Amino acid sequence: MIRIEIDGTALDFDPQELPGFYYALQDLIDLSALKGSRSTTMRIPATAQVRAALGGWSMSVAGNWVNDAIFVPGTGTVTFDGSTTLSGSVAPVFSNVAVTGTLTAPSGTVTVTGDWNSVDGTFVHGTSTVSLTGTGDLSAAALPVIYSGGDRNFYNLSLAAADETTPLLTDVNVGGVLTIGSGTLQGSNVNLLLSPDADVTTPLV
Fold first, then answer.
1. pLDDT tens-digit profile of 88-104?
2. Dist. CA 203–CA 205, nearest whole Å
3. If exposure means fewest CB atoms within 10 Å of the residue's CB, which of 35, 54, 94, 159 is most exposed?
4. 56: exposed, middle or buried (Cβ count in 10 Å: 0-12, 13-18, 19+)
């Protein structure tokens, strides 16, 4: 089931029945082709005051994600499997993120409360911050261990938040600021790499 809340009123519906709701709600929230768990575009307009919650149900997005209101991710995974640019006036918050296509971040913060996996995709970080605020695995695409200019998985990265655990499953390269909180950072036979101009702060999360 998927829940959409409009001005505090909750609507629950089956993804297989989504087209009917889409036509009824298209002026409030663009869920495009979510039937079959894949959307070409996700748009949450601020004027609708929409809260869209995935619950435990996962979805894939092939196009852009425009976040102008509150998206409540539940415990599901959003897989970006096409060419997606994150934008909007409200900083996006996700539970679990998987990047198998190309995901371009906004200049602000992308918050993830669970797992981040970009092993099979491309994350175009720009000057963004990825903030891991909960307990969840972190894995990223393989890059050269020796910095060769421009090779980095993240610009700013915050992990190991207070009372939380971040298991590092792959090597991760940070080019801006690495913030290690007072939580637990785990890893075995992996490297946490910093570009020559990177900084480290701890604990600030």
1. 888 999 999 999 999 99
2. 6
3. 35
4. exposed
Give the tens place of pLDDT for each residue, 170-193: 999 999 999 999 999 999 988 888
Rounded to two decimals, the pTM is 0.79
